[in-house]
Every structure is written in structure tokens, then in C-alpha cells.
Design goal:
The protein is mainly α and about 475 residues long. The protein has 20 helices and 2 strands. Helix 12 packs antiparallel against helix 13 and helix 16 packs antiparallel against helix 19.
């Protein structure tokens, strides 16, 4: 026992933990430096009583709480979200006036930061090879979940049908921030490599999110459209046309400029792609076609990455790594801000109860549908079940899009729409709190039991049966 304690607190172990978590202190000091610079320039606008200071505290405490949550093997975003809920309901955090617009822009930027790594990480060859399975997983189970949520919300929450569909599209998006790290960890241990399970799930979940985000923008545009019936009908096609055309054009631009021999190639490509997509997101929103922003971002990233691959970059290209670094900044902001919208003083117990039911039952239907639609593939029963369950976690998109309807409803001053927007946020928060930790635990626990393991050595690939399969084989031999 003494030896194990000595190993746990050894110099090498402490150094490894420091290397892994030192970014938390860096980001904390960066936030404090930004606040100090603002206070030096603008005085009490950045004072300790200001809302800017409150947002800085939210960022720092959410980041630290996320790290503490990760120590007990739960997704960090759960701790970040709960910190936002806590600060709001103890009376510390009150975002009002023009700062609501500011926080809405921060969420837009967070959404852009989600879409760019997703688009850059799409592998055209893997998509082509597994196209049928990817499309199947991205469309059929999603349609079932959206329909299930819409029906449940209509009967249990008294939502209008369009609002029910909007809620369904929000809840049907899965969380790359939870799924991808878990799958890469399993991949590093050799699980699921032989059939490309991680490629299938990541590609399908990315396409899933693209579909949900694009149609979310279309539906919310229709709900809040003040134009004629004709314009409401044309809202969807216009959003798709704007997003696709801008994405292709900007992606092609990023393929060819700057020159691949440019000294500061990575930095310039990051800035060009990133700022171009920010223009797409904020510009489309200003024009009244908000859904085009996210669609344009992910298409631009995907088109740009196709050209960059031909020049020698792969999925882990350095531009993608830069946006992954930016996510370390936007993650606590995104999840902290959605937690901030949960106000216990006006929280309705019926909304929590029926909203949770409206989320859980369609999710179970989605898992069943995913399993059934994949029966005729080359996956065995356990692999098929793992793929179906791996779609459980919800977090990233719900944090970015959850408050959007409420933000737009506040501008209309329509009390009914404001109440519906509040209900959407409550259900989104419940989906994150319930599915993120459960989904992460299921993926990491079921992966070694359900997936085949391959250990790659220096000169050969040695396939190793995982412990559960080995035990079953031994029992059959005894019989």
C-alpha cells in the first residue's frame, strides 16, 4: 500500500498531472490580465461591481469547477454548467441590458468554434467508404428523436408544433465534446480499430449535428419571421442556399490563399478561416437568416480541409489544433452562460418533470432505432449496441443553441414566446446534466466489453480479444 501511495505522489506522476492541467492556470491568468487591462483603460466599467467582472469570475470559476469535475471521471462541462447555475441563483451573476447582446455574441462565437474543428475533422475517404452507414445513422434515428420530442412536447409541455420541432432539433444534436475524447481514448487502447468504429461514430455524429443545427436555424427563422407567408415558406431554402454558397466560396478561398510556402501559413489560415466564418455567423444573423451561419462555417471548414489534405495535412492539421485551443476558452463561457439562464425562482417543477420525460423517452427510441437500422451491416450485436448507445451524450450544441430562442423572444417582448424560450433552456440544461455523465460512463465502460481489441506492435499487427470475448471463448471450450 505504501508503494502504491509513493507511486501516486511520485515526482514523475505529479509532473505528468501538471503538464496535463497547466492550461487551467494559464487561462485563469489570461482572463485576469484581460480584466486588469480593461480596468486600467476604462475604470469602473470593468470594476468589481461591473458585469464584465462578473463574467470574468464566471469564466475562471467554471474552468476550475470543470477541472474538479473531471477528477471524478465526469465530463468537465457538467461542472461548468452547474457553476453558472450556482452563481445565478446565489445572486452574484445578473446579466442585463446591452450585456445580454454581448453574451449572445459570445455564444455565437462558441458555436463557430464548435463547427470549425468538426468540419476540419471530416475525412472525405472515410465518409465515402462508410457513406451509407453514416447517412443512415445521421438521418433515420435523428428523425425519430425529433418527432418523439415534438409529440411529447406538444402533449406534455403544451408546446406549439413548431416549437416542439425546434426543441427536438436542439435535443437530437449529440456532443462531440463528450463523444470524441472518449472514442479517441478507446482508439488509443486499440478498441474498435478493426472496423473503424470511432470513424463511423464521429463522422455520423458530426453530420448529425450539421443537420440539427441547419434545420434549427431554419425553424427558428420561421417562428420569428415577421414577413409574409411566402417569405416564411422560402426561409428554409434561402438559409440552405446562403450557407452552402458562402461555405463553398470561402472554403475554396482558404484553399488557395495564403500560399502554402508562406512563412506564417498556419496562423494566416487560422485567421482567414476563423474570421470569415465569424462574418458568416454574425452577418447571416443580422440579415435575419441565422441558420445559414453554422451551415456556412462547417462547409467552409470541410471544403478548405479537402484542399489542405492534397497539400499534405491530415485530420490533425495545425489549424484544427488552433481551434481546439480556442475551445479551451469558449467552453467555460458557453456552458457557464447556459447555466446562468436557469433561474430557480421562476422554475416550474412541471416543466422540469415533463421536460425530462420529453427528452428521455425519445432518446431511448433513438437508441433502439439506431440499433435496428444497423442490423444489416458488418457490425456484430455488441458493436451495433455500442454505436447506438454512444449517441447518448448531449452538451455542446445544447449550450450554444439553448438560449438562442429566448434571446430572440426577448426582442419581440412576446410573453408567451419568452415562456417557451425559458422552457427550452430548462429542458436543454436537464439534457446536459443527465446525458453527459451517463453517456461518457457508458462509452468508457462498454467499449472494452463490446469492442474488439487490436494491439499494434512495431512490425506487425496483433489482434487481441478483449477480456469479455476471451472469457466467453473459454467457457465455450469447457463445454
Amino acid at each position: 500500500m505504501m508503494a502504491s501511495l509513493s507511486e501516486k505522489f511520485s515526482k514523475n506522476n505529479i509532473l505528468a498531472k501538471w503538464e496535463k492541467n497547466s492550461d487551467i492556470l494559464v487561462l485563469t491568468f489570461l482572463a485576469l490580465c484581460c480584466w486588469a487591462i480593461g480596468y486600467s483603460l476604462f475604470g469602473e466599467v470593468f470594476g468589481v461591481q461591473s458585469q464584465i467582472f462578473q463574467l470574468a469570475i464566471l469564466f475562471i470559476t467554471a474552468k476550475i469547477t470543470g477541472w474538479l469535475t473531471s477528477l471524478i471521471k465526469l465530463p468537465p462541462m457538467v461542472g461548468m454548467l452547474l457553476m453558472g447555475v450556482l452563481l445565478r441563483n446565489v445572486g452574484f451573476l445578473q446579466i442585463e441590458g446591452n450585456y445580454r447582446k454581448f453574451t449572445a455574441i459570445l455564444r455565437q462565437l462558441a458555436l463557430v468554434n464548435i463547427m470549425l474543428p468538426a468540419g476540419l475533422g471530416l475525412d472525405p475517404k472515410a465518409l465515402k467508404k462508410m457513406s451509407w452507414m453514416v447517412l443512415n445513422l445521421a438521418f433515420v434515428p435523428v428523425a425519430v428523436e425529433v418527432a418523439g420530442v415534438a409529440v411529447a412536447a406538444y402533449f406534455l409541455l403544451d408546446f406549439p408544433w413548431l416549437w416542439g420541432i425546434l426543441l427536438g432539433l436542439l435535443l437530437a444534436a449529440v456532443s462531440p465534446a463528450v463523444i470524441i475524447p472518449c472514442l479517441f481514448q478507446l482508439q488509443d487502447m486499440g478498441y474498435g480499430i478493426n472496423k473503424g468504429i470511432h470513424t463511423l461514430v464521429i463522422a455520423a455524429s458530426t453530420l448529425n449535428d450539421i443537420i440539427c443545427i441547419a434545420f434549427f436555424g431554419i425553424v427558428i427563422g420561421i417562428i420569428f419571421s415577421t414577413g409574409s407567408l411566402t417569405m416564411q415558406i422560402l426561409q428554409g431554402p434561402i438559409v440552405i442556399a446562403m450557407g452552402v454558397s458562402y461555405g463553398i466560396a470561402w472554403g475554396l478561398l482558404c484553399q488557395y490563399i495564403p500560399s502554402k510556402k508562406e512563412k506564417y501559413l498556419v496562423t494566416l489560415r487560422t485567421l482567414l478561416l476563423g474570421l470569415g466564418c465569424v462574418v458568416c455567423a454574425l452577418g447571416s444573423d443580422a440579415l435575419g437568416y441565422g441558420g445559414a451561419g453554422a451551415l456556412g462555417c462547417i462547409i467552409a471548414a470541410f471544403v478548405a480541409s479537402i484542399g489542405w489534405r492534397k497539400q499534405g495535412w491530415d485530420n490533425q492539421n495545425p489549424v484544427r489544433m488552433n481551434f481546439a485551443l480556442l475551445w479551451k476558452f469558449f467552453e467555460p463561457i458557453s456552458f457557464g452562460l447556459i447555466g446562468m439562464e436557469v433561474n430557480f425562482s421562476i422554475l416550474d417543477g412541471n416543466t422540469v418533470l415533463w421536460g425530462t420525460i420529453s427528452m428521455v423517452i425519445p432518446l431511448l427510441l433513438r437508441i433502439i432505432t439506431s440499433y435496428v437500422t444497423m442490423i444489416w451491416t458488418d457490425l456484430n450485436v455488441k458493436e451495433n449496441l455500442f454505436v447506438a448507445i454512444s449517441w447518448t451524450p448531449k452538451a455542446t450544441v445544447q449550450a450554444a443553441l439553448g438560449p438562442v430562442a429566448l434571446d430572440m423572444a426577448r426582442e419581440t417582448l412576446n410573453l408567451d414566446q419568452i415562456n417557451l424560450g425559458n422552457a427550452v433552456i430548462v429542458v436543454a440544461v436537464m439534457s446536459i446534466i443527465i446525458t453527459s455523465p451517463i453517456g461518457a460512463i457508458l462509452i468508457m465502460q462498454l467499449g472494452p466489453r463490446f469492442l474488439h481489441r487490436t494491439i499494434k506492435e512495431e512490425n506487425e499487427d496483433e489482434e487481441v480479444i478483449n477480456p469479455v470475448e476471451r472469457r466467453e471463448a473459454e467457457e465455450k471450450t469447457k463445454v
